[in-house]
């Protein structure tokens, strides 16, 4: 990643932390992914050669830019879905020079996933309202291709809110998963290539 883009991401992260500190309503905060978690996803996209990525939870585009930058290296594309994206998301993507890599979609994450064909997603990143994820079942798993990866943020900071969803994943044959103690906890689950 070039230094100008890294500087922009540092600025957006600091701005998000400062903005969140002024909000009394959690739903109005930006809740940006932590830089270490973003860096792990950035690396994972390139290691796995991800071409089709879906992000549920755009906010101001901080994690979107990280993913889009990695996808420019693999020739991939990102669709970022949010029920109410921050108006700054598109402007931030333009500032980052990554707008052409991203399709911004306004809508419910579960409905969006329900409309996708089976096994079409290389990477699914869930960073939205955690208590909604079980309602989206089975679509988050159904859309993953063999070898595809699902990343779920906040599994250590909000374990009770993700417990039901992680239990659904654990009960599936051919799905492996590990929680990484990074940021607020990032759970990675992947579909066995042989299935």
Task: Please characterize this protein's 3D structure.
- With 195 residues, this protein is of the alpha/beta class.
- It is 39% helix and 23% strand.
- It contains seven helices and seven strands.
- The protein has helices at 3-21, 35-47, 62-74, 88-96, 109-114, 139-142, 159-170; strands at 52-56, 77-82, 102-106, 121-126, 144-153, 175-180, 186-191.
- It has a seven-stranded mixed β-sheet with strand order 3-2-1-4-5-7-6.
- β2, α4 and β3 (102-106) form a beta-alpha-beta unit.
- α2 packs parallel to α3.
- The longest helix is centred in the first third of the chain and has 19 residues, at 3-21.
- The radius of gyration is 16 Å and the shape is globular.
- The N and C termini lie far apart (34 Å).
- The mean pLDDT is 93.
